């Protein structure tokens, strides 16, 4: 049941991250998406993959996206 | 026009969802993933290597080539990113001679960074060295180490971080990481075994066959962690500054 709820939230987050106007919000939503994936993986007892996802997916890649946005601007044109 | 994109995306979504019904059930013993090599790994890895975490054994021992070239791919990707973003003509400072500035930084950030950074680095080292027993290993530990550098760069500014961690061309340690990995493999060849066959190390280290595997995996993890941490930090530096280090945004 928990997995079903998380998968549903994942779809909602993926949809939201494509539709928000502010790119900073989008990258933070993608970080939350990665963290929920990490929860899902640890629910499946794949702890190593979950740990990697927590470090790389929701940690450093979010920081890298925000760092890039500092350079190119936070507003999207479409 | 935009509605068509959404239509295509929704159709693709349903197509992909319909494909998932063909997947084997989680934990299905007759699925292909559980039939070929997995039982062998699960039964023999602890006997052969004395490493309780089977994932580490598979990553660094049974599939050592895979991890070696993964590390090389990350090194290559980092070099490519640096080559794209690096323009030496506009560069005002060289890496080794950056000015120490505190502009645009915050006292709260700096003090919390000073408190948290030793703990982060200690945890990173724990993850690298304890990858045999608990989840973790070179990749994760390297990323946590890079996260601590990035934390310092955010709170003290990129020039200070570079001054502190990457003086005297210390970024060359990224190459050393891959070199350690490939060097361990080459050492095994020199000692008349196959490439990355860690049993060859037992004469140098004076341990049993199994512990030779364990130490080999440890050396390899250290190499991976060096490469990953420095490449990740370089990615942050070049993406955040885009080669102008006196930027106001930082």
Description:
The complex is a heterodimer of chains A (78) and B (250). Chain A contains three helices and no strands. Chain A has one domain. Chain A has 78 residues and is an all-alpha fold. Chain B has one domain. Chain B is mainly alpha-helical and 250 residues long. At the A-B interface, helix 3 of A face helix 6 and helix 10 of B.
Biggest sheet of chain A: strands, sense, closure? none
How many extended strands of chain B? Answer: 0
* Helix and strand sequence of chain B: HHHHHHHHHH
Number of domains of chain A: 1
In terms of structural class, how would the helical and strand content of chain A be classed?
mainly alpha
Number of strands of chain A: 0
The proportion of residues in beta strands of chain A is: under 5%
- Hey, which two chains have the biggest interface? A-B, 16 and 23 residues
Structural class of chain B: mainly alpha
Mean pLDDT of chain B: 83
What overall geometry of chain B do the principal axes of the alpha carbons give? globular
Uncertain ranges of chain A: none
Question: What is the multimeric organization of the chains shown?
Answer: heterodimer
Mean pLDDT rating of chain A = 89
What's the N-to-C terminus distance of chain B? 39 Å
* Separate helix tally of chain B: 10
Radius of gyration of chain A: 14 Å
Radius of gyration of chain B: 23 Å
Q: Using the alpha-carbon principal axes, give the shape of chain A.
A: flat
Count the helices of chain A. How many?
3
Give the gist of this structure:
The complex is a heterodimer of chains A (78) and B (250). By secondary structure, chain A is an all-alpha fold.
Descriptive labels:
heterodimer, A: about 80 residues, mainly alpha, 3 helices, flat, B: about 250 residues, 10 helices, disordered C terminus
Topology of this protein?
The complex is a heterodimer of chains A (78) and B (250).
Chain A: H1 2-19, H2 23-43, H3 47-72
Chain B: H1 2-20, H2 38-49, H3 54-62, H4 64-85, H5 107-129, H6 138-156, H7 158-165, H8 173-190, H9 202-205, H10 209-241
């Amino acid at each position: 049941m928990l997995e079903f709820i998380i998968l549903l939230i994942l779809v909602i987050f993926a949809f939201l991250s494509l539709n928000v106007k502010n790119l900073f919000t989008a990258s933070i939503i993608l970080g939350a998406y990665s963290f929920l994936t990490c929860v899902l993986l640890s629910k499946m007892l794949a702890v190593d993959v979950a740990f990697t996802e927590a470090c790389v997916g929701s940690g450093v890649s979010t920081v890298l996206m925000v760092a890039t946005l500092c350079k190119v601007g936070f507003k999207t044109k479409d | 026009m935009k509605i068509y994109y959404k239509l295509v995306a929704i159709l693709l979504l349903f197509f992909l969802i319909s494909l998932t019904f063909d997947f084997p059930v989680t934990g299905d013993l007759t699925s292909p993933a559980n039939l070929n090599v997995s039982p062998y790994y699960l039964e023999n890895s602890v006997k052969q290597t004395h490493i309780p975490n089977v994932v580490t054994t598979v990553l660094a021992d049974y599939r050592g080539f895979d991890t070696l070239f993964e590390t090389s791919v990350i090194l290559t990707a980092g070099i490519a990113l640096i080559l794209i973003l690096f323009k030496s003509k506009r560069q005002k400072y060289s890496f080794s001679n950056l000015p120490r500035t505190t502009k645009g930084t915050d006292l709260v950030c700096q003090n919390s960074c000073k408190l948290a950074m030793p703990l982060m680095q200690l945890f990173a080292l724990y993850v690298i060295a304890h990858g045999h027993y608990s989840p973790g290993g070179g990749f994760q530990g390297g990323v946590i180490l890079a996260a601590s550098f990035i934390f310092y760069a955010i709170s003290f500014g990129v020039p200070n971080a570079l001054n502190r961690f990457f003086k005297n061309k210390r970024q060359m340690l990224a190459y050393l990481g891959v070199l350690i990995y490939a060097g361990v493999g080459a050492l095994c060849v020199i000692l008349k075994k196959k490439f990355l066959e860690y049993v060859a190390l037992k004469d140098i280290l004076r341990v049993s066959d199994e512990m030779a595997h364990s130490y080999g995996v440890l050396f390899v993890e250290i190499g991976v962690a060096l490469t990953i941490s420095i490449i990740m930090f370089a990615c942050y530096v070049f993406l955040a500054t885009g080669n102008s280090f006196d930027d106001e945004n930082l």
